[in-house]
Amino acid sequence: MNKILIIDDEEKLRNLMARIISLEGFEVVQADNCNSGLKKAEQQDFDIILCDVKLPDGNGVELTVVLKEKHPATEIILLTAYGNIPDGVQAIKNGAFDYLVKGDDNNKIIPLIHKAIEKGRLTKRILNLESRVDAKYSFSAVIGESKKMQEAVNLAKKVASVDTTVLLTGETGTGKEVFANAIHQSSNRKDKSFVAINCSAFSHDLLESEMFGHKAGAFTGALKDKKGLFEEADKGTIFLDEIGEMPIDLQAKLLRVI
């Protein structure tokens, strides 16, 4: 059963809204101010929070920021007796799902709650996928408890926060790409692309085209413009595996890019 928290200091209106919503099959919890609402939100997981804008100990528009930081998958619908455009705009910017004027919401609130619940479900799926990606590609995916391995992990964690070129050395199969993924996932660039290419798997001309791209007509078979992997990885991370196998003249061009 979906849970809904109503935060409103007007007891009669709060009870009426709770009654209407509970008749739709939702579990409803009530609070009469910001502090009480925050405590209840900490104690239970709510799908939706209906919150008055003007409360005795705070403002619902500002409270939205705090609630969304702590409960990103919970959707917040703000209610006000005196709607105004600046407050409505700020409410949406702060993460509110919608902003309604009391008295105009009787026919809108239930359909709006259903829409907000659907959005909340999607948000939860996205957050779950992100956590699974983090677990798969973070430093927790690095297997090994030896002193040398821990030293390598600690050093990699340090460079992850720096926007710089990193050289990973080691024999084939020792986990260089695992480290590259972990560094990317722990960096400020994790929301951008991670692009990997094996430099030993391509011929000279194809590797150059893959890395730097080409214009249509640049050579036989180049029928259209093609983005290079460096452009694809812009503001993200590009991992050049087996870079030592790259032809010397391409290494010179790569040095120019770096």
Q: How is the secondary structure organized here?
A:
Layout lengths: L2 E5 L3 H12 L4 E5 L2 H10 L4 E5 L1 E2 L2 E2 H11 L4 E6 L4 H9 L4 E4 L7 H29 L9 H14 L15 H10 L8 E5 L5 H9 L16 H4 L4 E5 L6 H10 L1
Parallel strand pairs: 1-2, 1-3, 3-6, 6-7, 8-9
Antiparallel strand pairs: 4-5
Helix pairs in contact: 6-7
Briefly summarize what is shown.
By secondary structure, the protein is α/β, with parallel strands linked by helices.
- The count of strands amounts to 9
Strand order of the largest sheet: 2-1-3-6-7
The largest pleated sheet is described as: 5 strands, parallel
- Quaternary: single chain
Helical amount among residues, as a percent range? 40-55%
Q: What is the overall shape?
A: elongated
Return the structural class: alpha/beta
Poorly predicted spans: none
Strand content: 15-25%
Q: Over all CA atoms, what is the radius of gyration?
A: 26 Å
N/C terminus separation:
55 Å
Query: Given the structure, what is the number of helices?
Result: 10
In N-to-C order, the SSE pattern is EHEHEEEHEHEHHHEHHEH
Mean pLDDT: 86
Descriptive notes:
The chain has 258 residues and is α/β, with parallel strands linked by helices. The strands form 3 sheets. Strands 2-1-3-6-7 form a 5-stranded parallel sheet, sandwiched between helices. The radius of gyration is 26 Å and the shape is elongated. The chain starts with a strand and ends with a helix.
Features:
10 helices, two-stranded antiparallel ribbon, alpha/beta, 258 residues
